[in-house]
Amino acid sequence: MFTGLVEEVGRMRNVYRQGEAMKLTIGATLVAQGAAIGDSIAVNGVCLTVTSFDGASFTADVMPETYRKSSLCTLKPGDPVNLERAMMVGARFGGHIVQGHVDGTGKVVARRVDANAVVFAIDAEDPELMRYIIPKGSVTIDGISLTVVATSQSGFTVSIIPHTLAETALAVRQPGDMVNIESDIIGKYVDHLLHYRGSGNGDGSRGLAKPSLTADYLSQHGFM
After folding, report:
1. Which CATH number fits domain 8-85: 3.90.870.40, 2.40.30.20, 1.20.1540.10, 1.10.3720.10?
2. Tens digit of pLDDT for each residue in 9-22?
3. Cβ-contact 52, 37 below 8 angstroms
4. Model-level pTM?
5. Most buried by CB count within 10 Å: which residue of 89, 111, 118, 120?
């Protein structure tokens, strides 16, 4: 689990592709220190497993499912990437609950200055993602914990303070660039509980029958 607070901006050293599989070597100083094989490191918000490392870099594999669902497929040597090591038990929790399980990608459609901040407008590649993204809620963009400013049917905006812009790869993001989106896990669980219906066949199918757990029930009991 992660918090969405980027520890370091690394640089892609090598990208090896074989079909929809990848092996990435990423230059890093902070996150590579004390690393161990099997450790989890979020790379642009995608949880990857360290397979080898030295004091200045680490290597991780990308499987086809991750390749298809994230922006890692666009990486090339020299690209900056946001890095965060898995959260330590007992550490300060400064962001929000981030799994490193990207829900999909989005495209930066606008970038504008707003006094000391920079506002990014992002359209989700799959509009279905917008059911989990709410104004003033949490969202993770390329591994960065951010607050949603406003939403539309197809996208949303976030406002970036100078420190976040300077310390993350968002500094180089421009209209047309692809970003990874992970929506708030709480919304996904609530949605699943409201709509899930076991088939009785062990396949975990999801039905549309009226659920026993309803929005009215959650509201009456202080969950909404």
Report:
1. 2.40.30.20
2. 999 999 999 999 99
3. yes
4. 0.85
5. 120
